[in-house]
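S.,

As promised, the guanosine-5'-diphosphate run. Input:
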Amino acid sequence: MTLQIIIGTQWGDEGKGRFVDLLSADADYVARFSGGDNAGHTIRIEDKIYKLHLIPSGIIYPNTIGIMGNGMVINPEVLLREIEELRQGGIAVTPDRLKVSYMAHMITPAHRLMDKAKEIKLGNAKLGTTGRGIGPAYSDKARRVGLVYKDILNAELFEEKLRTLLAEKNEFFEKIYGIEPLDVESVVEEFLGYARTLAPYVADISEVLRTALLSGKKVIAEGAQGALLDTDYGTYPYVTSSSCMASNALLGLGIGIPKDFDIVGIAKVFQTRVGEGPFPTELFDRSAGLLRGDGSQQWDEFGTTTGRPRRVGWLDGVLLKKIVEMNNISRLALTKLDVLSGFDEVKICVEYAKPSEISPLVLDNPVEPVYRTFKGWKQDIMQITQWDDLPAEAKEYVSFIQEFIGVPVKWISVGPERNQIIING
Ligand code: GDP
Ligand code: IMO
Ligand code: MG
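Predicted complex:
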């Protein structure tokens, strides 16, 4: 197996960063294929915490090469900040260790402002975006007016394209949104600086990965967001603007369908969501507070990117099963089993009483979850590393997930640190 695709199976924040880090130990390349700095991936190695928004989570190991795919939208300011933060944390991210696709799209302050202005204009109908300019950057890609990273290799052309883009956006800001336009000169000066610094990172990542796969290197394709936020099959319009499905790993990295691959789905043992949109198993009672935490723990459910409290609920087995099937996921990794310790009982949604006739993914009308209830467990399980040492109730809960979803649960994480992991079988 040389290509391992890792995706989130819910509404993001499943613990992908934590798992990409874990599975990168023997990887040669770790490649992000979609999204931008709307993502927030947390990695904890002993007392060190890394919060990555753009750079692939496998970068923490000294021998991996990070790849940022053509499927991404990249804000150069955020990328340079992240490179600097990693450098300060002792991780040198030089152009031989990080390669940016020449066809990745660029996020500018105009995209961020547009994102915010659109949300304000939507009022109560807002999507609850991260405000990072993601939607406007992908719109510009589809409209064929976006800036791509190969543009920065020709300063004159880049400046011209940037000025055209800013002029168009400023017209929108003034005429449609009635807000202050951006100062074109300062953005141009800033971006010409970024262009000079980032030029050495620009590469033909499709060719890099093709050669790597041909020579038997291990490549991890790192998903961002989660399948239920997928722009085609997620809870549209409450989705992000890119595809978060496993199949987009190929397109977003410019590689063909490989002979040999493995698709790993990351699922939290309960459900969370930031932003607006349907959430059949959402909880508002005392259990919600226990699942979310009060913010005193690093892993409590407050957004890595925006700090917003995440909405929480019981695991939605109906949605998880559908996502596993659609993505041809071969193995599951479950995260945050430790957070369920202390509950008298825990639940999994196994059916909808009023399902959509088209697909379980159609959630436009209330669907009324039907739950299976399990006895909870009281022990702290955060130091457990062997399946046999888990409380019987926890084993029953996980075994049910495996049976219900129909694929092996290969990994169970019981804490945020790299080694708080149970490898099953
Ligand atoms: P991602 O976006 O999918 O990479 O996930 P985030 O990093 O946004 O959110 C996951 C949070 O849960 C982070 O704070 C992780 O450190 C933490 N985390 C991951 N796995 C576990 C686990 O098994 N137990 C606990 N308590 N925290 C975890
Ligand atoms: P990671 O990779 C959780 C959500 C936003 C909003 C919707 C659209 O950390 O799992 P956008 O800014 O993308 O236009 O917002 O998508 N969203 C995420 N939620 N985790 C993420 O990434 C997310 N990326 C986007 O909250 O509801
Ligand atoms: Mg996250």
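Residues 8, 12-18, 40-42, 44, 298-299, 304, 335-336, 338-339, 413-416 surround guanosine-5'-diphosphate (ligand 1) (CB under 6 Å). The CA atoms of residues 37 and 54 lie 5 Å apart.

- D.
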